[in-house]
Amino acid sequence: MKKEKEDIRVPKKQLLWQLPFLLLLIVGTIIIVRQHRNMPYQRIEGMVFGTVYHITYQSDKDLKEAIDSELKKVDQSLSPFNKESTITHVNNNDDVVAGDDKMFREVFEKALTISAATDGAFDITVAPLVNAWGFGFKNGTPPDSRQVDSLRALMGYEKVSMGRDGRIKKADPRMMLDCGAIAKGYGCDVVARLLRYHDVENFIIEIGGEIVSRGKNAESNPWRVGVTKPTDDSLAVNVEREAIINVTDMAMATSGNYRNFYYKDGKKYAHTIDPKTGYPVQHNILSATVLAKDCATADAYATSFMVMGLERAQKLLEAHSELMAYLIYTDEKGQYQVWYSPDLEKKIKKEE
To answer: Contact, 265 vs 219, CB < 8 A?
Structure first.
C-alpha cells in the first residue's frame, strides 16, 4: 500500500505573517546599497620611502592618520635610511631580534623565497653593490673591477637566514640587506589590509608607481592603469602610454631603467644591479610590469625580470601561472617591441 505524500504546503496565514519581514529585509538591503553608492570617494596623498603615495578609497571615514601610521611602521621596519629601523639594526649587526618585527619577518621570508625562484636575480643582499654604484646612498663613484669582485663576496641570499631565536644570521658580518625592490610593494599591501579591515570595498593604492586595487572607481568602472612608453626622459616631462591595463583586484609593479640612471664620465649607468655579475644590467628589456595577487611579490619579480632579461623572464613566467607580465624591450634593430603573458590579453586596452 502506497503512503500518501505529506502535504508540505505552508499555510496562508504563515505566509502573510512572514511577508512584512521579507519586505523589511528587501527595503533595508536597498537602503544599504544606495547609501554605499552615495558614499564619497576620498583622495589622499603623502610621502613615504622617499617618494609620494596616492590613495583613492570609498568610505565615510577619514583614514589618513591610520594609513600614515601603518606606513610609518613599514618605514620603521624596512628603511635603511631610518637609523632606528629593524633593517638598519640588522645591517649594523646590533643585537636585535628581527623576527619579533612581523613586517620584517614577512618581507624577509618572501624575499628569500623569490630569490630562490629567480636563481638569485632577486637578492636582498645586493646593498653593498647598490651603494658602491652610486644608488641608495648616492656616493656617485662607480667601483672598479677589483671593488666589484670584493663586494660580490659579501653577497648571496643563501648566506643569510633567520634563526629560531628570530635573529638574522650572516655568513659575513659585513653583509647588508636592501629591501628597496620590495618595500614599496609591501607598503601597498599593508595599506590594502588596513582598508579591508575598515570594510572599504573600493580603492586604489599607489606608492612610487606600485599599485594595489580593489572593486570599482567612482564611475563604477574597473580600475585601469597606464603602462608608460620607455623614453630617455629622466624628468618624466613627456609621458606617453603604451597600454592601459585593468588592475581591479590585483597588484601591479613596474621596474625600468629608462628613467632611473645617471651619467659618469660620459657613460650611462642603469639603476638595476645584476647580483651575478656585480654590474648594472646590460640587456634589451626596458621595462617590466608584473601583476600578482600581492604587490610585494609583483615588485620583487619586476626587478627580477629586469635582471634576467627577456628569455629567462618568459621561461619563469611559464612555470608561474600566478604571475602575469607586460615586458617592453628592444629588438635587434633597436626598435621597441612588446611581449605580454597570454592571460593578460583580456586585461589590456591598447592606446590608439
So the answer is: no
Beta strand ranges found along the chain (DSSP E) = 41-48, 51-58, 160-162, 168-170, 203-207, 210-214, 224-228, 241-246, 251-256, 261-264, 267-270, 285-292, 324-330, 336-340, 348-350
Contact 306, 285 (CB under 8 A): yes
Helix, strand, coil abundance in the chain, percent, nearest 5: 35, 25, 40
Give the integer Cα–Cα distance in Å for 34 and 39.
9
Best CA proximity match to 247, nearest among 344, 313, 152, 174: 344
Burial 58-93 (b: 16+ CB within 10 A, else e): bbeeebeeebbebbeebbbbbbbeeeebbbbbbbee
Q: Is 1 helix (H, G, I), strand (E, B) or coil?
A: coil
Chain segment 84-127, per-residue pLDDT in tens: 999 999 999 999 999 999 999 999 999 999 999 999 999 999 98
Checking if the pLDDT of 319 tops 90, the result is yes
| Conformation bin of residue 231: beta by default, left when phi > 0, alpha when psi is -120 to 50 | beta
The cell for 77 is 621596519
Q: What is each CA distance from 242 to 56, 184, 245, 278, 289, in whole angstroms? A: 24, 23, 10, 31, 12
pLDDT digit string (tens) for 175-186? Answer: 999 999 999 999
How does strand 267-270 pair with strand 336-340? Answer: unpaired
CA–CA distance from 294 to each of 107, 153, 287 (Å)? 12, 32, 19
C-beta separation of 349 from 227 below 8 A: no
205-to-68, 113, 160, 315 alpha-carbon distances in Å: 13, 25, 32, 30
Residue closest to 313 by CA, chosen among 117, 48, 153: 117
CA distance 115 to 113: 5
- Supply 92's cell numbers: 649594523
